[in-house]
Specification:
2 helices; 230 residues
């Protein structure tokens, strides 16, 4: 009777196959994680850019409709980068607190029902928010009779103002040009830092406290025309 020879995998061959599969699975896992990080970063950047574009469009429309003689230039309270500001255009007013004030409220913080706001557009036909009160100060808690809209609200991330400046470039009796510079971004104090020029930026991914994939800070510089009748 002729014997049969049974062939199979040796222990070495099985070990090599298992090692190959392990390396392959690790490579797939690493690639998936990297794609997830890139996707999260892209969504975060897109959110900031979209909010910045919408805010810029709103500012352009309101400034274009404003009567030059009714504009009350920005009044800013605070020190350093912990600032609260306001600018009144006659029919609407803009009020804001920088991220530092939102996270650690100051005495001059602009609030709604006692809670610091970030950036709001307020229907303010009498420019009440830019009028000095009998106490010699400005209104800091938004009156309930003034309707306001938060301009940095999103469903996904908490956003904040890091800086806003409004500068007249050229004006005459009826028309004018203003430059508006804004820095807005995600509101996470532990994930941001200041560079040598004191500009806010996200910490690099090598920093242990960084949340780089969910952090974004962007600058917006726009020129707006003034010359409406409101």
């Amino acid at each position: 009777m002729i014997g049969r020879h049974h062939k199979g995998f040796t222990l070495v061959e099985l070990s090599l196959v298992m090692a190959f599969l392990s390396v392959l699975l690790l490579a797939i896992l690493y690639t998936t994680l990297q794609i997830g990080k890139l996707y999260a970063k892209g969504i975060t950047n897109r959110t900031i850019n979209q909010v910045g574009r919408e805010l810029s469009d709103t500012l352009r429309r309101d400034f274009a409709a404003a009567n030059l003689n009714r504009i009350v230039m920005p009044h800013v309270d605070g020190e350093g980068s912990a600032l609260s500001g306001r600018v009144c255009l006659g029919s609407v007013s803009y009020v804001w607190n920088t991220a530092e004030v939102v996270n650690q409220p100051t005495a001059t913080a602009i609030t709604r029902n006692g809670t610091p706001i970030s950036l709001e557009r307020v229907i303010d036909g009498s420019s009440k928010l830019c009028a000095v009160q009998d106490s010699g100060a400005y209104i800091t808690d938004l009156p309930t009779d003034l309707t306001s809209t938060s301009l940095l609200s999103t469903d996904a991330r908490s956003l904040a103002v890091y800086a806003i400046t409004v500068t007249p470039m050229a004006t005459n009796a009826e028309n004018g040009l203003y430059e508006i510079k804004m820095t807005i971004g995600t509101n996470d104090a532990s994930a941001t830092q200041k560079d040598a020029t004191q500009a806010v930026q996200c910490k690099p991914p090598t920093d242990s406290s960084s949340d780089f994939n969910y952090c974004s800070v962007a600058d917006f510089d726009i020129i707006v025309r003034v010359g409406g009748s409101k």
